[in-house]
Amino acid sequence: QVQVAESGGGLVQAGGSLRLSCAASGRTFSSYTMGWFRQAPGKEREFVAAISWSGSGTYYADSVKGRFIISRGNAKNTVNLQMNSLRPEDTAVYYCAANTRPYYLSTDRRDEYDYWGQGTQVTVSS
């Protein structure tokens, strides 16, 4: 069983920045693909960003490309999402997810991630 937990959400004005963190358990964290998704009220959960097991591959939704940066620290089993130039439309609950199949690259497919955190709220005011 792998546990995933997000932190760092909050309220920010448009144009501001927030940094989300995700901690995951598991002795083989360095073989997991990790992803961030978000869900706004009344909308489906959507892909935001993903990072390969080594960190050498990063992938972004078009809506956040150039503004968000995903990174990971395998020594501490953490994944971060630096969010810059935030917009009101970025308001959502943000979820961290893990694909624990070793060295299996996942990007935007929700069904490829087998463990999810509880989510953290991000609110961007205009």
Tell me what you see in this structure.
This protein has 126 residues and is an all-beta fold. 0% of the residues lie in helices and 47% in strands. The chain has strands at 4-7, 10-13, 18-24, 33-39, 46-51, 58-60, 68-73, 78-83, 92-99, 115-116, 120-125. The strands form two sheets. Strands 2, 4, 5, 6, 9, 10 and 11 form a seven-stranded mixed β-sheet that branches. A hairpin with a 4-residue loop joins strand 7 and strand 8. The N and C termini lie far apart (40 Å).
CA-atom Rg in angstroms:
13 Å
Order of helices and strands: EEEEEEEEEEE
- Structure classification: mainly beta
Strands, total number? 11
Proportion of helical residues:
under 10%
Low-confidence stretches: none
Mean pLDDT: 96
Distance between the termini: 40 Å
Largest sheet: 7 strands, mixed
Percentage of residues in strands: over 45%
Overall morphology? globular
- In DSSP terms (H or I, runs of 4 or more residues), the helix count works out at 0
